[in-house]
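INFO batch 0412 | record 1 of 1 | parsing
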Amino acid sequence: MKNIIFAFLLFGLSMNTAYSAEKSDMPNMPNMPNMPRGSIEFPTIPDIPVPRGMGYDDYFKTNQPVKLVFGVSDPGHQLKESLTNAAYTIKYLKPRGIKYEIQLVLYGRAVLPANEFNEEYAGYSTLMEALNKQGVEFVICNNSLAALDQSRGDIYPYMKIIPAGILQIVKKQMQGYAYIHNTK
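INFO prediction complete | emitting tokens
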């Protein structure tokens, strides 16, 4: 029995040593949670430190740019999750010098928060603008605007209206973008 306990203890110690010695993509940082230098701030998005040794090594550095397209049809939970995921993606990639291309395609009822005069969804505006300042593109489905009787002139100026949201997602996938569709 003592041999088994000793073996587990030795195994645990060796795993801890291996973890501590792992190469990190955050050089000169302490072993435990920290944000890389130059972290990005977004309203309502707290920092979540990445422990040393927990990362993607050089994968994204050698496979740039990271290309994501978010398809968003729900202005509630799905939009919130998509905005949050885009923010955390940027918080991870940008301080490490990794290029990215991120586009949020709003279609269906998700076009409603794109209306700068819609008070019901005004809570999204500061985060959407902050993401746009970090290079995130917002494109709005013209078909959905028409179906929901929304004025094209009421869309935030930094957002682009495109003919059809679904076709935009297909186009981006054909251009090598990873399609992200958050659900409840």
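INFO post-check: The two ends are 48 Å apart (CA to CA).
INFO record closed
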